[in-house]
Amino acid sequence: MVSAAGTFDFVVAANRLPVDRVVEADGSAHWQTSPGGLVSAMDPVMQGRRAAWVGWAGDPTDEIAPFDRDGIRLHPLMLTVTEIQDYYEGFSNETLWPLYHDVIVPPRYRRRWWAAYERINTRFAEAVADLAAPGATVWIHDYQLQLVPSMLRAARPDLRIGWFNHIPFPPVELFGQLPWGRSVLRGLLGADFLGFQRTNDAGNFMRACHQLLGTTSTGDVVSWAGADDDLLGAEPRRVRTGAVPISIDFTSMDELAREPAVRHRAAEIRASLGDPQTVLLGVDRLDYTKGIRHRLRAISELFADGEITTPDVTLLQIATPSRERVRAYQELRSQIDGQVGRINGDFSGIGASAVHYLHHSYPREEMAALYLAADVLLVTPLRDGMNLVAKEYAASRWDGGGALVLSEFTGAAQELSQAFLCNPHDIVGLKQTILRAMREDPAALRKRMLAMRRRVRTHDVHAWARRYLDALEAAPGKPSRG
Ligand code: GDG
After folding, report:
1. Mean pLDDT, to the nearest integer, of 383-402?
2. CATH class of 8-246+464-474
3. I need a labelling partner for 60 at 20 to 30 A (CA). Which of 188, 255, 270, 342 fits?
4. So where are the chain's domains?
5. Ligand 1 in contact with 398 (CB < 6 A)?
6. How confident is the model at residue 36 (pLDDT cuts 50, 70, 90)?
7. Is residue 7 within 8 Å of 133, Cβ to Cβ?
């Protein structure tokens, strides 16, 4: 059913709002801007427009009325405990997340979760349809909202609709497992432009459409003849696809890392680690895609081989708590706890830990200090859409110091070719790469780091948002306005 227009010319829909609700000890609550690049990327493109953002408010609480913050209308969607379990923890994080990351753990296909995913996507589409002005631009984010483009187009054919996938899009041989794969593709084809991190992801999407729906494509445009049914996305469509790799706010990271307090804190961190010759660092959400176990295996073997020893070398591993109610994450945590315990039992000395393992999240200032304190950053995902940590490391190293070991299975590897690239499945190769990064002479390291900094500076998050919106504007099939 076609709904009436709202008044906002630019509407973002993402699983989460750009703010978190903080409840103080006295029970009072306020909103705090969430950390993360998406918020800072969206801010400049939203300022000066009548802009709104639709997203889940985070906690299962009572209904919260829409409110304005920094000139932007925030429209919270509330989810019940069961909806969180089925749509978010279930379909998004136990079905789509592992399926889209090369089935590192087996995806679970449950009909109840799919039904909840459809329902919550409908709620997002309805909220956007109510807020968007005639002819407005809508930018939908990520794998949690893949049905929203077609749902929204059915209600509001006048809108210009874009979707961006922050995670990989899998090859059709894997995507084809999804019992509702055709519905997902038809959901996405409601957009005018579908943006992906890598050209390969866009290619995988196009191949899936061809094989499962019988679409044709010319260049980067997918043509769908439509279907003779009354399911979602039955209308014929021409949709543009493309790779628009996301980035970070280079300037703000660079400036933060230059602050005297952050530099002082970096020195303090090294001192409290016992001033080792080499500090190796890992910073990840505690997620099985990030290759933390492979990294620990390589480090453990390097200690066992005598290639590295305490107190000269230590690994500082920050693992930010994530999706703690999902079973695969609980299992991963106990595996990593066990691995770290064994490495420290075998290789630490008194006051000289082989691994410092911290299961916490930290303020941005501390993250910048950690990056500055590290001689080698280990980024070893088995699959990662982009990996912003790698780019943040380059942006923080205004001193030209540091070395980056980077998995070839990250989107970032396509841009940061001066990193020490590795295959984390190849433990022998990973060990050699870590040693090369540790032993390379400072002048050569500096050259590599300056080249990576140039890349991230010129391709920052603002350039990403502009490129995305230009591609959306230039997409085929101009909507009928009016
Ligand atoms: C998804 C895709 C893609 C981490 N711990 C703390 C903290 N962080 C920040 C990092 C970085 C961000 O979280 C993590 O970004 P990643 O890109 O590494 O990974 P995902 O969370 O998996 O993100 C990924 C990304 O979306 C964007 O499209 O790159 O491929 O999986 O910014 O700094 N920040 C703070 N404290 C922490 O403890 N303040």
Report:
1. 97
2. alpha beta
3. 188
4. 8-246+464-474, 250-458
5. no
6. low
7. yes
CB of 182 closer than 6 angstroms to any ligand 1 atom: no
* Distance from the first to the final alpha carbon of the chain: 16
Q: What is the ipTM of this complex?
A: 0.99
Most ligand 1 atoms within 8 A of CB, residue of 388, 389, 414 to mutate: 388
Fold for domain 250-458? Rossmann fold (3.40.50)
At 225-250, the pLDDT tens digits run 999 999 999 999 999 999 999 999 99
Is the beta carbon of 392 within 6 A of some atom in ligand 1? Answer: yes
Q: How far is the CA of 36 from the centre of ligand 1 (A)?
A: 7
Residue 107 to residue 178: CA distance in whole angstroms: 9
Expressed in angstroms and rounded, the spacing between residue 414 Cα and the centre of ligand 1 is 18
CA of 388 to the centre of ligand 1 (A): 6
Chain segment 273-300, per-residue pLDDT in tens: 999 999 999 999 999 999 999 999 999 9
CA 18 distance to own-chain centroid = 14
For residue 138 the two structure tokens come to 């809508």
Residues 128-175 have pLDDT tens digits of 999 999 999 999 999 999 999 999 999 999 999 999 999 999 999 999
| 8 A C-beta contact, residue 360 and residue 320 | yes
Tell me if 371 sits within 8 A of 396, measured CB to CB: yes
